[in-house]
Amino acid sequence: MRFHRALPLSAPARVSVVVPCYRYGRYLHDVVASALDQPGLDVDVLVVDDASPDDSAAIAHAIAEEEPRVRVVVNDPNLGHIATYNRGIAEVTGDYVVLLSADDLLTPGSLTRSVALMQAHPSVGLAYGYPLEFRGQPPTTRSGPATWITWPGHEWLHVFCRRGRNLVFNPEVVLRREVMAELGAYDPALPHGADMDLWMRTALHWDVGRVVGPEQGLYRQHDDNMHVESFGGVLDDLVGRRLVFDRVLLVSARDVVAPPERRRLHATAYRALAREAVDLAIRTVDGGHPEAAVRCKQYLAFAEETWPAVRHGRAWQAAVGRLGGGSSALRARAGETARQVRDSARWRVWRRLGV
Q: Which domain of life, per UniProt (predicted)?
């Protein structure tokens, strides 16, 4: 990992922003405006409406009539989110490509900062930054000076596996179009982890960069995208991440990573997933959920299936003890306090370094 002083754009550049939309017409004016507010860049926007049953397509066409930099395509019939992403990516021609959900936003100049990083470091295939989460009205964002971080792709991939989770939100990611040409776009076989798969496959062949300082994107939290917060969503996410690690480390990495290293990375990722599942089991019981015992058992089953040795750890014993009624209110409060301290420390590192 290396820190760099941020530099201005070294040359004009074209950036294509793909905006997949399904029933999010009410957000389109704001998201398109945010994508076009990027000084020094030639930005075009392609809205891909996935056969929305409401007036989303009509709103998109109305925007395109007023703004020549915006185009619209409408799926017929509905293709689902991965196919919609890939259709849009296949139709754009910019030097750099951004996939921006219709309910999210870019911050002013965010693409300019990312493209400047990638121009200065031609080996970087993916650049990202800090996305600020919000509800309701978009918040005011910072516009101070930025610095850059770059990682060799293999180094970033190692961190990714140690964390066992997706380190990158989607609103702020910029990819070189060559990445898509070389690696393909989003994998339809990974509905719960296609973005994570693409980031990891990119790191197998390219370096990774991050803009530090100003917020680079705004990620909207609302009921329609909160499915992963539910129990079923969290469990699906764990299973989806495990499948991504399998496909990337056991298949995609075969020609670029030596077998012993692939096995080490795979084992590292599996340990991280298992430990996270055990931690979720403990949190579920301590949180007093009505179906805590059932949920706890499912998390523990996932953990044991993923990494059987997890049964020998203290966290596993704590989870099993809670299932047996051995958890007190005092212990639950102490455990939650410790987790909050740990989570806060991890968040500060991620906020600063992106890993």
A: Bacteria
Element at 279 (helix H, strand E): helix 259-286
Q: How confident is the model at residue 330 (pLDDT cuts 50, 70, 90)?
A: low
Nearest-angstrom CA–CA distance, 51 and 78: 5
What are the tens digits of pLDDT across the range 90-140?
A: 999 999 999 999 999 999 999 999 999 999 999 999 999 999 999 888 888
Q: The pTM is what?
A: 0.91
CATH of the domain at 166: 3.90.550.10
Give the other-Cβ count within 10 Å of 334's Cβ.
Answer: 12
CA dihedral sign, ordered 223, 228, 231, 236: positive
| 120 and 66, same domain (yes or no) | yes
Place of tokens 């539910």: 230
Distance CA 124, CA 2 (A): 13
Residues 190 and 164 sit within 8 Å (Cβ to Cβ): no
The closest of 116, 199, 164, 198 to 306, measured between CA atoms, is 164
**Of the residues 156, 190, 225, which one is the last residue of a structural domain?**
225
The whole domain housing 26 covers 2-225
Residue 139 dihedral angles phi and psi, to the nearest 5°? -80, 165
Between the alpha carbon of residue 143 and those of residues 28, 151, 258, the distances in Å are 24, 24, 43
